[in-house]
Amino acid sequence: MRPKTDTANRVRAYPILVISDATTRLCAARLLPDETPDSYQKALERAWIRSFGPMRVLQVDEHRSWASDHFKDWTGQHSIQLMISPGQAHERLAIIERRHQVIRRSLDLFLLESEDYTPEGVINALNYVIPQVNRMPNVQGYSPLQWTLGYNPHIPGLLMEEELNPTQLHPTQLPADCNQVHRPGQQ
Known about the structure:
Elements: E1 4-5, E2 11-12, E3 16-20, E4 27-31, H1 37-52, E5 57-60, H2 69-77, E6 81-84, H3 94-114, H4 119-135, H5 144-149
Parallel strand pairs: 5-6
Antiparallel strand pairs: 1-2, 3-4
């Protein structure tokens, strides 16, 4: 994601927790207020556990918040096996790292178009980008939503819908004769 620069022209990046199921590749994401163990726990509960329940195994990278006593106690209380992958074990998190690349690039493009790099703009980008990423076919020809729900739900207004119509396009992308009404017998 493109970082925001403040008045002193310093770069400001926003921490985002991206969670992805290793089997279906279904993703969820939350903007974090900070990178403390409590923020990670709350984001995990709100983005994943609220909808899908606690996972059996939580495989994470080597961030100090995941390795904290607070987080280890929390995972132990909820019978979640915490697997912290060492920084050099890229093969353990290869699937997740690839999903991060796709999501990061998608967020970059969305934010570049909207030019809103505020926390609200980032949340808005997550609200639109994550559902689109979950609808992209990538696991043996099926989307993560199809693997998870058993079907691909119809969500009006998404660009990957089969029924894209001109009202969903930007006015500059409309054909010149789009606003003209075609009547039978006219050419």
